[in-house]
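call fold(seq) -> tokens
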Amino acid sequence: MDKRMLIPENLNDFLLWFKEVTEASWAKRMPQSDQGIAHLEIKWIGMSNSEIDQTEKKYSIKFPPDYREFLKILHTLSMIEESEQHFFFNWLGDEQKVNDKLDGPYSGLLHDGMWLSSWGVKPGTQDIAINRLNKWYREAPKLLPIFGHRYIVSEPCKNGNPVLSVYGTDIIVYGWDLKTYLLHEFEEDLPRELFEQVYDNEDNCWYSPFKEEVQSLFDSSWLNSSYDDILYWGELIIQNEGGWRYQP
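ret:
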């Protein structure tokens, strides 16, 4: 790794770096004993290759290769507070909870009455609309849960698939790949060296944006990616945004 780089470029190196810096951040916030030692340490727990293979078979899914690497290192946490249990996902946890999470996107679309403009005029009969949604959902790539209501698109089965924030039909790209997603989601747990201090004269306050090297990762991913490349789900995102798109 180039010591001058703020963030490792290689995915495996990045995931190990991310594990180290987030665990260190959480350790600083943990309650301390009289001896100055944290009572409990929060650690990421990875999955073995065998556990990943068995999970794919059990739930009839296929993990993209970079998500497999993620699962080996950052699958879930060793200690999760009750208030955070619905955020951190565990593929090896309760089977009903796993299935509920996998079915979450469909339940949300059904509840919101999803109908794509390309399907024509929405029928007045609910059964017809539901049947059309069911057909679309069966054909669409599965969304695989990562954290909270963030899901990675499973197809094509390759590195670099986007991570979506999914809440009913309110779906946006939260990261064009796992790296930018993790940097976005866990921004408050990252080292301060990734940020710069900027004073806003108009607002009369300081704020802390990412340094240019880090921000460029987000900007280049947006410039080099297209909603049209997201199978099925991209059309829904475009319809929701009404032509608006973030431009770095």
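Helices lie at 11-29, 49-59, 65-74, 95-112, 126-139, 178-185, 212-223, 233-241.
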